[in-house]
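Margin note from the TA: students keep mixing up input and output lines. Inputs are the sequences; the output is the structure of the whole complex. Example:
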Amino acid sequence: MDLLSVLHFDELSHGLANLSMFPYFDMAHYIVSVMALREQPGALEVSRVSPLACWFSSMLFCFGGAVLSGIMLAEPPVAPLSNSTGVLLASVIWYLVFYCPMDLVYACASPLPLRLVLSGMKEVTRTWKVLGGVTQAHSKYKDGLLVMIAIGWARGAGGGLISNFEQLVRGVWKPETNELLKMSYPTKITLIGAVLFALQQTHYLPLQKHHLMFIYTVFIVVNKSRMMLTGSSTSPFATIESALYKTLFAGYSPYAALISEVKSACIDNSSMNKTTTTKESSENGSPGQETPTSPATGQSSSLEAKEESPNAAATNCKKTN
Amino acid sequence: MDLLSVLHFDELSHGLANLSMFPYFDMAHYIVSVMALREQPGALEVSRVSPLACWFSSMLFCFGGAVLSGIMLAEPPVAPLSNSTGVLLASVIWYLVFYCPMDLVYACASPLPLRLVLSGMKEVTRTWKVLGGVTQAHSKYKDGLLVMIAIGWARGAGGGLISNFEQLVRGVWKPETNELLKMSYPTKITLIGAVLFALQQTHYLPLQKHHLMFIYTVFIVVNKSRMMLTGSSTSPFATIESALYKTLFAGYSPYAALISEVKSACIDNSSMNKTTTTKESSENGSPGQETPTSPATGQSSSLEAKEESPNAAATNCKKTN
Amino acid sequence: MDLLSVLHFDELSHGLANLSMFPYFDMAHYIVSVMALREQPGALEVSRVSPLACWFSSMLFCFGGAVLSGIMLAEPPVAPLSNSTGVLLASVIWYLVFYCPMDLVYACASPLPLRLVLSGMKEVTRTWKVLGGVTQAHSKYKDGLLVMIAIGWARGAGGGLISNFEQLVRGVWKPETNELLKMSYPTKITLIGAVLFALQQTHYLPLQKHHLMFIYTVFIVVNKSRMMLTGSSTSPFATIESALYKTLFAGYSPYAALISEVKSACIDNSSMNKTTTTKESSENGSPGQETPTSPATGQSSSLEAKEESPNAAATNCKKTN
C-alpha cells in the first residue's frame, strides 16, 4: 500500500514536473493577471485614455517577474519582449479583456467556477517561475542562498514587488505602501516557495526537486481555491507569523518611549492625538492585525519632529552614511 | 527624367547616410536640449541653487536616450560618460546657456530663425539615434521585432520617456502624467520611426536603409519646421489616430456602466460630481481631444472607491498576481 | 629628520593600505549605518510594523554603494547579497540595534566616545570604497575620467545618493529634495575623494596611491571627529564653495528678470509673495547659506505659471526633446 502510494506520488510529481506551461497555463496566467489589472481603481479609464499605457501595464503584470529578475541579475529587462509568441498571446488577451465588444471575454471569465480554474492554473505557473528564478541564480552564484531566494522571489512575484512603478505607468503614485511594508498573500507565498526551493537546491532540504514542486503546487492551488471559495483573505500562516513576530520583533524600546515623551511635548494638540495613536497602534501591531495607519505616513513635517536621538547634538540627525 | 531624379534621390540618401553627426549636428542637439530644459518651470532656480543638479539634468536631456537604451539592454548606463568629448561639449553648452553673462548665448539662440535651423539639425540626429538603437537591438536579438522597436524608441526619445525621473533630479514630481499616458509629438514621431526602421531591418518593409533614412529625416525636419513656423502643436497624424482609436479602443463597456452606478451610490455628492465627470470625459476622450482631467488623478481615496468588480467577494480587489 | 619622517609617513601609508576592512572596520560601518537609519523619522515604527522593510532599508544603508555602482556598471545589483558573511554580520547588527531587549546595543553605542571611534572607523572604510569604485571603473574604461569619478562617488556615498528610493522602501517619499539638490557633508567629501583618486589613477595627480589613501583617510577622520566633538555641521569647504559659486554660477539673468515681471502680473497675491520670496532667496542663495525654500517646490500649478520663454509662441513651452 505504502509503496503503491509512493509510486503514484512519484508518478504524479514527474508528470507535473514535465508539464509544459505553454500555452494553456501561460494563457490562464495572462487572463487572470489582465483581469486583476482591470479591477484596479482607475485602470479602465486609463485603457480609454491611453491604450499604450494600459498595454504596458498589462505586460508588467504578465511579465513583471521576468523583468525584475532580469534587472537584479543585470540581464536585459527587455528580454521578455523577445518571446514574441508569449507577448502576442498576452497582447491579444489584453485587447479582449479591455476592449471586447460588450465586454464578452471579461463577462465570461469573471464568474467563480471558471475564475477558480484559471486561478488554479495560474498558481501552477508560480511554481515554474520560482523554480526558474532559483535555478537561474544558482547557475550564477553557486553558494548564494540569499541570491537564490531573492531571484526566485522576484521571478515569482515580480509583478507585485514592482507594483509602485507599475502604478506610476498608469499615473497613480502611492508611496505610503509597498509589498515590503504590507505583504499581500501571493507575495508571501512566493517568498516561502523561494526559500524552500533555494534550500532544496543547496541540499539543506532533503527533498527531490519534483517532489517539492508537487507538494508546493498542490498546497498553493488548494489554498488559493479555499480562499476564493470562502471569500476569506486570512493567510494560513497568520498564527505562525503572529507568534514569530511577538517573539522576535515586538520588543519594547525605552528609547522610543523617551522619544515619544519629547514628541508629546513638542507637537501641538491636533497632531499629537494622531501621532500618539499611530505610535501605540504600531507598537502593538502585528502582521495579523492590520494597522491601517501604517508608519509610512508620508507627512514629512510631523515625521521630522519625531524620533530625535538623545545624542542629536553630537551626531547628524540626518543620514550620516 | 525619372532615372535622373532617382539618381539624385539615391545620391542625396547616400550623402545623408554618410554624414557625420559630430560636431555640428550633435552641438545643435545639445543646444536645443539644454534650452528646452531651461524653459522648464523651475529649472532656472535649480541652476542657481544647485549647479550640479542642473548639470545632471542637462546631461539626461542630452544623453537620456543612450542611458535608457543602455539600461534596457543591460549595458552600463554610465557608458555615455565615457564619451568625454561629447560630454565636455554638452557641459560647455550647458554652462553657456545657463550662466553666460547677460544671457548672451540664450538670447542669441532663442530668436526663431536660428532656433529653426538648430531644431532642424536636431531632428536629423533623431534619425541617427533611432537607427542606432534598432541596429544595436538587431545585433543582440535577430528576430526580436518588438525589442528593436523598443530600443530604437528609447534611443531616440529616451529623454522624454524618462522625464518623470529627470524631473525628480530637479525636485519636481508629477506622477499623474508621463509620456505613455500623454505622448508628446517628439515621442510619437520617434515611435513611428522606430517601427519603420525595425520593419526595414527585418525586411518586412521593402526599402533600402539609406532611402528610409532620407525620407524619414526629410519628413521630421519639414514637419518640425512647419510646427515652429505656424506655432501649431497639432500632430499631423491626428485624424489617423482618431480614426484608429474610435475603431479599436473606444468600445462601450457594460461592466464599467454597472460600476459607475455602484460608484454613484457609494460616494458623497462633492466627489461624485468630479468622478462622474471624469468617467464621462474619459469614455468620450480620444488622443486628439485633450482630456486634462486624465484618469491618473492620484487621489487614492476616491480611486479606491471606484471600479469594484461584481465578483469582489470571490476575488481579491487588489492585485492577485 | 626629513628622511625619517618620510619613512614613517611611507610606513604608515603602506600599513594603512594593507589593512583589512573585515571584520572590525566593516562592523563599525554597519553599526553606524544602522544607527543612522534608526534615527531617521519613522524608522522605529517601520521596524515594528514590517521587520522585512526595515531589514531591506538597513541593507541599502550598509551596501547601497555597491548596489548603485553595480547598477551603473551593468553588474548584478544583487551581488552584495552573495557576500553571505557580510550580509549575515550586517543582519545581526540590524537585529541588535532595532530589537535588542531594553535597547542595550543602541544605548551602549550611542554615547559620544564610542560613537566617535565607530564613526572614525567608518570613515576609514569610505576610502576603501571610493578607491574600489575608481579601480573597478578604471578596469572597464581606461581613460574614462568622468566614469571613474562617478563610480567612485557612487561606491563611497551610494547609500546617500539613493536615499529617495531607500525612503520609498519605508513608505516615505520626499521628492522635493535629493543629494544632488542639497548635498550632505558625507556625499560632498566622497565626491572630492573620488575626484582625487580618479586623477591619481590617470596620473594627473602626482601622488602614489597609498600616500593619497593615507592623506585622504586622515583628513576625513579628523574632520568627522571635529564635527562630532564641536557639534558643528559647517563644511570645511564652505568658503571655497562660496567663492567658486559666486564666480561661476551666480550670474544675473536678464531673461529671468523679464520672466519674474510676467510672473508677478500673472499670479495672485497669496502665491506671489511666496514665489517672489523663493526667486529672490534662490538668486542670492549659495550652498553655504541654506535656502530652505528650495526651488524644488513640487507645486505643479504654481510652477506651470513660472518661467515662460519670450519665444513661447514659436517654441513648445514643454520639453521639445
